[in-house]
Amino acid sequence: MLVTGVGLVTPLGNSADVTWNRLLAGDKAGCILTTSDIDHYEQLVRIEGLRLHGAPVNSAGLRQSLIESKLLTNLPPNVIDTWLSEPLVAMSLVAFIEAVAQAGLADTFASRREAIATRTAVVFGSSKGGLRTIERLAELMRSGDADDQQCTPLTTEFDLLWQHAFATDSATRAIAAISGATAGVSCPVAACATGLISVLQGAAMIRNGLCDVCIVGSADAGLRASVMSSFHRLRVTSRHADPANACRPFDVDRDGFLIGEGAGVLILESRRHAESRGVPGIARVHGGLWLSDPTGMTQIDQSGSIVAEVLQRSFRKHGFLPDVISVHGTGTEANDLAEARGIDAALGNNTPQCFGVKGAMGHLLGAAGSVETILTILALRDQIIPGTTNLRNQDPNCKLRLRSTSEKLPGLQRAAKLSLGFGGHVACGLFERE
Predict the structure, then answer these.
(1) d(CA 286, CA 24)
(2) What would the DSSP string read from start to end of 265-320?
(3) Rounded to an integer, what distance in angstroms lies between the CA atom of residue 24 and that of residue 383?
(4) How far apart are CA 130 and CA 146, in angstroms?
(5) What pLDDT does residue 158 have?
(6) Residue 11 and residue 425: Cα distance in Å, rounded?
(7) pLDDT on residue 207
(8) Fewest CB within 10 A of the end CB: N or C in the chain?
């Protein structure tokens, strides 16, 4: 099946083209967070050793993009306002609107044509749900009338937030409501592999004849005090003084990542359906699979054996060898070593060029897999391999072919995307240029 449209909201920009161009230019989104970037700022600054670094999106333009979209004109204003209040949903919808426009489906979805609705599905994941909304709901519950013993005041605001913005599948249901999709709606949750697994599940639905169009992807709005403090205690976030240079995947001096936020949406279609509309594909979803690493909730098999197995089984099943690999590359010692060892074990001397983007935009957590899949597809489209930002002194134990700057590579035809997530999720997706 084909990818006919993509949309991005990332720390580098609120569209796919802006994000892609800034990535190729070597721009970096990491910054020192201010009170306008993150709630509970005063509590966070009191945590010893925690760097108030992150990669936030530019939220100023999100609201205007949604208000101007004709896809939202038939929906109740209070529901739209509720979606706008939760970054997870707002980012997802802006990325969705861009992807739909690129795929030439905006008018079709806006008119709610039953024929396409019954053959359209949504597979859109998130790793945590609407954290800002969860915190707001907790505030409303705490403010309830104690004399009345009411723990959940059923105010209009509470009801709207509860129904439309707090759950893990809030963005999934919002996309389904706007598109009218009825062929199936699901929300995969697989930590930082969520986005890639959503793509693979959506592709499988089309391959099995369950739908003609599948809206896939993921989002994460994890720049919250709860996430930052938890990851700080796990010692997976960087303590480097300069946020722009904090995340250094595969570098000998790496010490973790910084947290970013964002959303990625892809429109998948069967080739027959895309051709019937006269719409060209950007890339082909060739296949892929995912396995489970049983090492531990936050650990990974340091030998890289699970990474090697998922690659070998994917390549063998689909008769596929990549020209480039988009790596997970968190900048933690455990992830980078396991990933590099697994790629080396699977491909050895046949290992192609690799790249990772977290040095430029931070770790987008549940959004990482879909955002990085889209960037991999754009690399195929434009025949360019992005640089691995902040790579200055590559760890000799990470035997990968990496560059710190972008490189034109004519003939770039096939790509593999790796995603690893807490809980043992290890996924590989295979993509081919159209």
Answers:
(1) 25
(2) EEEEE-HHHHHHHT---SEEEEEEEEEE-TT-SS---TT-HHHHHHHHHHHHHHT-
(3) 12
(4) 27
(5) 80
(6) 25
(7) 96
(8) C
Identify the sign of the CA torsion 390, 396, 400, 406: positive
How much of the chain is in helix, strand and coil states, percent to nearest 5? 45, 20, 40
Consecutive H or E run containing 141: helix 131-142
Please, what's the b/e burial string for 109-144 (b: 16 or more CB within 10 A of its CB; e: otherwise)?
Answer: bbeeeeebbebbbbbbbbbbbbbbbbebbeebeeeb
Which residues touch 156 (CB under 8 Å, ≥6 apart)? 78
> What is the per-residue pLDDT for 165?
79
13-54 pLDDT, tens digit each: 999 999 999 999 999 999 999 888 888 888 888 898 899 999
* Contacts of 208 by beta carbon, 8 Å cutoff, 6+ apart: none
Alpha-carbon gap, residue 404 to 12, rounded angstroms = 18
- C-alpha closest to that of 89 among 228, 17, 187: 187
Residue 145's pLDDT is 42
Separation CA 381–CA 423 (nearest Å): 33
Query: What pLDDT, in 10s, does the model give residues 121-159?
Result: 999 999 888 888 888 888 888 876 434 445 444 458 888
Nearest in space to 8 (alpha carbons), one of 87, 94, 127: 94
Residue listed under structure tokens 């592709």:
203
- Contact status, residue 125 vs residue 172, Cβ threshold 8 Å: yes
Q: Alpha carbon of 103 to those of 5, 66, 214, 377, 401: distances in Å?
A: 4, 18, 12, 15, 34
- Which residue positions in the chain have pLDDT lower than 50? 145-149, 151-154
Q: What is the DSSP letter of 384?
A: E
How far is the C-alpha of 93 from the C-alpha of 156, rounded, in Å? 23
Could you tell me the domains of the chain? 2-130+165-433 (3.40.47.10)
Q: Which residues contact 264 (CB under 8 A, 6 or more apart)?
A: 6, 7, 8, 9, 10, 95, 195, 217, 218, 219, 367, 370, 371, 372, 373, 374
**124: closest CA among 178, 55, 54?**
178
pLDDT score, position 149: 43
Residue 148 has what pLDDT?
47
- Find all residues with CB under 8 Å of 235, minimum gap 6, and list them: 256
pTM of this structure: 0.94
